[in-house]
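Q: what does this look like with D-malate bound?
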Amino acid sequence: SSKKTQVVRCSVKTQEEQIYATQVKRNPNFAKLQAGYLFPEIGRRRAAHIAKHPDAKVISLGIGDTTEPIPSVITDGMKNKAHGLSTLEGYSGYGAEQGEGPLRTAIQQLYSKISPHTGVKPNEVFVSDGAKCDIARLQMMFGSDVTIAVQDPSYPAYVDSSVMMGQTGLYQTHSQQYSKIHYMKCSPENDFFPDLSSTPRTDIIFFCSPNNPTGAAATFQQLEELVSFAKRNGSIIVYDSAYSIYITDDSRPKSIYEIPGARKVAIEISSFSKFAGFTGVRLGWTVVPEELMYADGSPLGEPFPVIKDFNRVMTTSFNGASNIAQAGGLACLSEEGWKAMEDLVGFYRENVSILVTALKSVGLTTYGGENAPYVWVHFPGQSSWDVFAKILEEANIVTTPGSGFGPGGEGFVRISAFGHRENILEAAERLKKLFG
Ligand code: MLT
C-alpha cells in the first residue's frame, strides 16, 4: 500500500513579511467612492474580454480618446520649441504658473472670435495641463463646505472629485446617488436640460455643454436661464466647454460668456484634448473673470475676487503647463493650426454620422452626435451594463454604459466617434448585424 507522505510546511512569518501598517488613518472620503473610476473599470472589462477571446478584433469606442495624428503644423511648433531648449537662446526653465503671455492672449482672442461680447481678458486665462486637472484644483479651492449640483448623467470627474473633497455624504444604493449632491436629471423628456424650477440652490453648478456623455448642446435660451438661475441663487457655474469645437449649430453658444451676465457667475474650463488630439500632450485652460466674487473674504468681510484664490491655487500646486505643450497650443491657435484642427474635427464628425446612420438604420434611437463626438444610444428598459456586455461579447466593441455617468444614464450606452475610419466602418457594420 502506498503511503501518502504529507509535507507540512511550517511557515513563521518574519516581522518584515507581516503586513506593516502606518498609524495614518485613511481619508474616509475615499472609502465613499464606488468601485473604480469609470474608464479604468471599462479598461479592465476590455482586458478581461481580450484574455478570454485572444483572437477577437476588439474595437474601442469606450473612453473618448482621440486617435488621429496631430497635424504637423501643430507638432512643428512643439518640435521647434523642444529643439530650442537645447540652445542657450531657446532654453527656458520654470514659466509663469498661469501660462505664457502669448498663449493666454491667443486664448483670449479665441473668445473674441467666438463673440465680441465674451469680455475675456488675457489675465483671466489660466493655462493648465487639462480640464480634468483644473476640476480637481477648483474643488481644492472651493473646499469641503460647498454644495454642488451636476447634470445627471455627467462626466464622472465632477462627482468623484466632490466625494474626495468631502463635499458629499455617503453613496445611497437605492438612488445610486451621493447624498448632498443634487443630480439634475437630463433626459430626452426635458431636451437634456434640467428643470431648474425644481432644482434647489447649491453653491456650485457643474454644467458641461456640449455634454459628455449625452452630446446635447444647450441653446442660448437655456443658458440664459441657467445664468439667471445662478444669479438669483448666488451660485457659481463651472462651465465645461471641452467639446465646444464640435458645435455645428449656430444657435448653441460655444462659451458661457456669450450669455450676458455670465462673467459674474461663471468659471469656464476647456481643453485642447478633443480639439487637437492633445489627450497625451496635455493642455487646457480655465477662465476666471475678475467680476466673479465670493460673498465674503475681504478683511472687512466684503466680497472677495475668486480669481485671486484661483491664482493662489495655481501658484501653490502647479508650476505651469509644459513649455513644449504650450508651444503646441500656440500653434493650434495660429491661422493654419486652426484650419488643421477644424479638418481633424471634421473627420470625427464624419465618424459620428457613419455611426448614427448605422444605428438608426436598425431602428435604434440616438441622441447627441450633431454637436459632439458622442452618440447617446437609447435602450429603453434595459440595463446599461447588460447592453455594454452584449455589445462587447457579441460584436467585440467597447462602449461606455450610460449608468456609469450617473443614474440618469441608465438605459443608455455612449458610443465615442474617436476612431480610425476603418474601425468606425467596421463597428457600424457589426452594430447593424447585432441589432438588425
Ligand atoms: C471620456 O471618455 O468621457 C473622456 O475621455 C473624458 C475625459 O476627457 O477625461
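Residues 63-65, 132, 155, 212, 273 surround D-malate (CB under 6 Å). The two ends are 66 Å apart (CA to CA).
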